[in-house]
Amino acid sequence: MKFGKYLKNNREEEWQEHYLDYKEMKKLLLELCDDKALQARGLHRSDRGTVFLRSLWQEFQKIEKFMSDREKSIGNKVKLLGNSPDAAQIMNTCKEVEGSLAFIQLNQDGMRKILKKYDKKATATIGFEYYRNMTAPHFQGKTALMTHYKVTLLNYYSSQFGDPNDISNQSDQSESVFSLALEEQ
């Protein structure tokens, strides 16, 4: 499956406008690698790296803004849930974290793939350097923070309600505490 379709099929629809616009970036890349299209835009081959990376930077900033807002929101919820007796709220926040982790991973993969495609089409190595030095460390930091939130939430849950993976054998029921918490919603 092509990555553009994979991205479209695996993204959260409500966050659609916050994802990397892979299709547009790919379209721009193909246009920048076509000499006739470059001339029609009044550009030279030497301009394509600048134009492409400027557009990618705008996409990156869009993703960053959304993730910063999510980090603040989830961070505030994590602080408030420290002593919360509400198992469902803890697990809902954990689901938000998991959604954010998936968002980060899809965008990181998209950035890596479009930069790799740039290097291949433009016969350059700037995409690899850009990804390695700027994009990857940033996404790794976001992933680390969200993973920290998830671990913290699971620790809150475990300290108050037991291990989410434990099996409860009370009155002929054999459901995990985790699934019971999710049903409380």
UniProtKB/TrEMBL annotation:
PROSITE patterns: SPX. Coiled coil: none annotated. One of its GO terms (cellular component) is cytoplasm. InterPro entries: SPX_dom. Residues 165-177 have a biased composition (Polar residues). Residues 165-185 are annotated as: Disordered. Residues 1-132 form the SPX domain. PANTHER family: PROTEIN ERD1 HOMOLOG 2 (PTHR10783:SF46), XENOTROPIC AND POLYTROPIC RETROVIRUS RECEPTOR 1-RELATED (PTHR10783). This is SPX domain-containing protein.
